């Protein structure tokens, strides 16, 4: 079972991962976007970590709602509202349950992913963060003891699979065919999010 401590560690691990890999994310975004994805997420998750440290919520859902709100209020780029919506919607779905099983988290994240798809209008194969988020959430929902590790793997594979895709949403879509051959920055950061979850649960 995952409690609020696990969720706090998850967000702290994500902040550390984004800080560590900010240059890589920005490099990916410089190929098919505007070279700010690393800076956007670093600003966002640094603010998330600070807010959670200042006043740690007592329930998993509240951790995600606070994180999502912070991302929306601190990140100017598309990724802020999108990740913010993902976490806030998932947090709302968890309500005030004190502990959640991975499969329950998968259900909540599924609602978050649906909200991201509504907000951004993207679908699987459009070369966005959804291409890592969707397979990760599907793997997390499977009834297996290593579901979190499987989700992290699925997210990494989903991010790698965006390389040959042609972007149909976001800035990268302006490049059309020229977006092919570059990994999507948002799918790459989504893989970091699930690697951070695995870190937090010790898988
Ligand atoms: P911006 O494009 O505003 O500079 P970022 O560089 O921070 O924002 O984030 C870009 C990432 O956001 C993309 O790599 C993609 O994964 C994701 N993204 C952009 N638009 C959409 C959308 N409509 N739906 C889902 N994800 C999107
Ligand atoms: Mg950008
Ligand atoms: Mg930008």
Automatic annotation (TrEMBL):
GO terms for molecular function: kinase activity. SUPFAM superfamilies: DhaL-like. The keyword Kinase applies. Residues 5-199 form the DhaL domain. InterPro entries: DhaK_L_YcgS, DhaL_dom, DhaL_dom_sf, Dihydroxyacetone_Kinase. PROSITE patterns: DHAL. Pfam families: Dak2 (PF02734). Keywords: Kinase, Transferase. This is Dihydroxyacetone kinase subunit DhaL. It comes from Streptomyces changanensis. The gene is dhaL.
């Amino acid at each position: 079972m995952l409690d609020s401590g696990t969720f706090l560690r998850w967000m702290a691990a994500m902040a550390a991962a984004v800080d560590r890999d900010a240059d890589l994310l920005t490099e990916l975004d410089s190929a098919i976007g505007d070279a700010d994805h690393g800076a956007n997420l670093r600003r966002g998750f640094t603010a998330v970590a600070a807010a959670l440290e200042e006043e740690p919520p007592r329930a998993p859902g509240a951790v995600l709602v606070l994180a999502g709100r912070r991302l929306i209020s601190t990140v100017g780029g598309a990724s802020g509202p999108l990740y913010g919506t993902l976490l806030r919607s998932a947090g709302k779905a968890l309500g005030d349950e004190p502990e959640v099983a991975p499969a329950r988290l998968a259900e909540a994240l599924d609602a978050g992913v649906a909200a991201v798809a509504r907000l951004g209008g993207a679908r699987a194969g459009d070369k966005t963060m959804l291409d890592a988020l969707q397979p990760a959430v599907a793997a997390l929902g499977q009834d297996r003891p290593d579901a979190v590790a499987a989700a992290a793997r699925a997210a990494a594979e989903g991010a790698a699979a965006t390389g040959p895709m042609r972007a149909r949403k976001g800035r990268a879509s302006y490049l059309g065919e020229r977006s092919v051959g570059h990994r999507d920055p948002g799918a790459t950061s989504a893989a970091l999010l699930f690697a951070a979850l695995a870190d937090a649960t010790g898988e």
